[in-house]
Amino acid sequence: LQADILFINVESEEELTRIESLAKSINTIARISVRVNPNIDAKTHPYISTGLHENKFGVDIEQAKSMYIFAKNSPFLEPVGIHFHIGSQLTELEPIKQAAQKIAELAHSLLALKIDLKFFDVGGGIGIQYTNETLINPYDYAQAILGALYGLDLTIICEPGRFLVGNSGVLLTSVLYEKHNGTKRFVIVDAAMNDLIRPALYHATHTIKCLSQSKQGQNDSAKLCDIVGPICESSDFLAKNIALPPLSTGDVLMIRDAGAYGYSMASNYNTRPRPAEVAFMGENVRLIKHRENIESMLKDEEELLQEYKNDTAKSIHSKKGIENDTTR
Predict the structure, then answer these.
(1) Which of 9, 218, 282, 289 gets the most CB atoms within 10 Å of its CB?
(2) Does 318 reside within a domain?
(3) Residue 186 near residue 225 (C-beta atoms within 8 A)
(4) Domain range spanning residue 130?
(5) Contact in structure between 87 and 96 (CB atoms under 8 Å)
């Protein structure tokens, strides 16, 4: 509110009253939009589906209407937009088209109630090609949205994050060892689920290529393997049952299409430092994020430990003082 952003997408009635209270406390008007859940199946992985009533996101249409009326009648709220987002990695246009039409109908009814909407936020979610997905044509996507908005004079907002950056990022990892359990082949690498959690979380598939010169053209000797990391979880894998040639310690693998939901979802699980990020900009190469190290990760913990030691020492000193006073 203090930064005066365009508007806040509101997720619930309770959040709306909270925003109103905050706006009142600083004597400003909060521009808001309501995220409406259209109850439409996005035909994507259930963990990244957001447009069904069983998902936690948004409010249903009737609840949205009452929230808009409440906002219109509040001196500290200004409803200016309407929003929906039914899921991520969408590869079918029809669910998006249905959602846009449903929310556009709601927008018409709100305008009839003299609620002066200005923005129609269609969210994002357009999928990219990780393996052999059939993709939505951007032109068809635009026409579906424009068709739904026929007769509405609203500014369209969209959030095509993965679509813009997903295919432009890769994760490089080095082979530590090969290991065989019976007939099962494992390639253990120095990256893990903390670096790229999509395969473990969504069972997502990323194309993996060996960059080592000596391995090129060895497809005839390629055998199935699981690419796994060193974390103590059976879910710590980056690929399962993919064909790769025999690999040696130090061979480099490239995991493609890691530009979205890669580093942004990385963690320090198992006390693992996150890797460096390097950007290729034309002919230039830039380090855009430093590699973490154990020392920097433990810095806050060391400071906390020192505070604990200091507090403990003060407590012991105070206790001795009380005992001395009692004795005297």
Answers:
(1) 9
(2) no
(3) yes
(4) 8-166
(5) no
Q: Name the token pair of 182.
A: 């019976």
Pair (13, 151) in one structural domain: yes
Our count of domains for the chain comes to 2
pLDDT tens string, the chain, 328 residues long: the values are 999 999 999 999 999 999 999 999 999 999 999 999 988 876 655 544 555 567 778 899 999 999 999 999 999 999 999 999 988 899 999 999 999 999 999 999 999 999 999 999 999 889 999 998 889 999 999 999 999 999 899 999 999 899 999 999 999 999 999 999 999 999 999 999 999 999 999 899 999 999 986 666 566 689 999 999 999 999 999 999 999 999 999 999 999 999 999 999 999 999 999 999 999 988 999 999 999 998 888 887 777 778 878 887 777 666 555 555 544 4
- Cα–Cα distance, 123 to 48 (Å, whole number): 13
Q: Which CATH number does the domain housing residue 221 bear? A: 2.40.37.10
Please tell me whether residues 148 and 271 are part of one structural domain: no
Amino acid at 97: K
Task: Identify whether residues 179 and 95 lie together within a single domain.
Answer: no
* Token pair 């893990």 in the structure block, residue: 192
According to DSSP, the β-strands at 30-35 and 8-10 are: parallel
How long a stretch of residues is the chain?
328
54 close to 137: Cβ distance less than 8 angstroms? no
- Residue 11 identity: E
Residue 131 lies in a domain: yes
Instruction: Clarify whether residues 18 and 117 are in a common domain.
Output: yes
The answer to whether residues 192 and 146 belong to one domain is: no
Catalytic residues: 232
- Domain-located, residue 322: no
